[in-house]
Amino acid sequence: METTTQQTRCLAAYLCGMDVSKFSDHTVDITKMCIEDFIGVAIAGSAKKESGIWKEYYSGKLTAPQASTFQPGFAQMTVEQAAALNAVFGHVMDMDDVHNASITHLAVITVPTAFALGQQLGKSGKEIIEAVAAGYEAGARIGEAINPSSYKYWHTTGVVGAFAAGVTAAKLLGLDEEQMVNCLGSAGTQAAGLWEFLASGSMSKVLHTANANLCGLRSAELAKLGFTGAPTILEGDRAFVNALAPEPDLDSLTKGFGESYRIEENSFKPYACCRHTHSANYCIEKILSAHALDPEEIVSITDDTYSTAVQTTNNPYPENPYAAKFSLQFCIAAAIVLKDLSDRTFTVENINNPAVRALMEKIKVKVNKELDDEFKQDPNQWSHRLTICLKNGETITEQVDYPIGDFKNPFDLEMADRKFRLLTEDMIGEEGVTKLLDRLHRLETIQDINEIFN
């Protein structure tokens, strides 16, 4: 089934053939957990500053009650408005899921489109599950084709997002193979999302995810009407993969069809910060469970890790809350001093906390060749090895290859539900949470997903 010349068409055919009736129970369950995780994170994120700006942006525009926004009251807006808002809500706290090998947040570029369009079309829970899983498959495979070599400049979630959202919409619209090819072609030419926002801690990251959903919806709906897109948008000489990746891996687009689905390799986030910090954060969690660590007794902390983590999160002097989420130094110090890496920890006050600042000065982050080679051989392994030297001469070392929430160290349903409740109970109440979780748990039995938000 693999080809060296028609990867876009080959991938389109595979995605068209994904059928929920052939999914294993595990695939259905993990897809439901991905949806649950995202909706919980989005409800919590709907109260953030960036979300408020986007709500204000849409407040003066014409709207219609077509799809629910993931916020208290679940107010309805147009499909495009709901998809964009939900993508902003779900990404603003950096607690949404991630697919390691592609370095992509996949729920935020599939679930908003699936639910907004699915509500407008009155789709069933099974159809939503199928569409989301297909969107994950597209986003992950295309992300793997460009990473890690594209990651220095390109925010993967943003640049593959139009593909993932487009495929999600295409499944719900019933596009055939030729239409799917055209959808991918239109999606790829709209791809965008640069990392420059990290330098200032600006709000662009959620703009990437909102734009991705809008581009995906547009691509699928235009394809259904007969609008054409480049049929070699992935593999062509002047196409997506070659444009973004100095070291492309086109085989990732088509290899292993039918063996398993990428959504089964998805990871969830217990900490409200960049996923490249999570193995280090879990190291600290394990160390604190075994040692009564006094920050003032620490002489130095060395974090040995892989090159992409250093490139993205070695920031000893974060100047704002968003930069702190991408700072290994802050995350490690906050985990030790404040013993909390929830969203409320990432504040200017905590960045300037004298105890946190003092400990950050003692933390060195560096590339370890062994761990970097392991990452390159297995891009699912995001290892950190922490070495803590104390004033009494004691040395504590801990290494984590797969932090809690990783698909090789996974959440169970109870943990997923606990995260959902912690994020949402203050906003929609205990009874509201219980009702919503019950409906999400039995999503595959629901005939019209509008029932979920009734």
Task: Provide the descriptors you would attach to this structure in a database record.
single chain, 454 residues, alpha+beta, 2-methylcitrate dehydratase PrpD, 60s Ribosomal Protein L30, Chain: A, 4-stranded mixed sheet, two-stranded antiparallel sheet, lyase activity, MmgE/PrpD_sf_1
Number of helices, counting only DSSP H or I runs of 4 residues or more: 18
Sequence of strands across the biggest β-sheet: 6-5-7-8
Helix proportion of residues, in percent? 40-55%
Low-confidence stretches: none
Rg over C-alpha atoms, rounded to the nearest angstrom: 21 Å
Please trace the helix and strand order, writing H or E for each element: HHHEEHEHHHHHHEHEHHHHHEHEEH
| CATH structural architecture of the largest domain | Orthogonal Bundle
Strand content: 5-15%
CATH third-tier fold name of the largest domain: 2-methylcitrate dehydratase PrpD
* Net shape: globular
Report the mean per-residue pLDDT as an integer.
96
Distance between the termini: 44 Å
Compute the number of structural domains: 2
**Structural class designation:** alpha+beta
Largest sheet: 4 strands, mixed
CATH class of the largest domain: Mainly Alpha
CATH superfamily of the largest domain: 2-methylcitrate dehydratase PrpD
Strand element count: 8
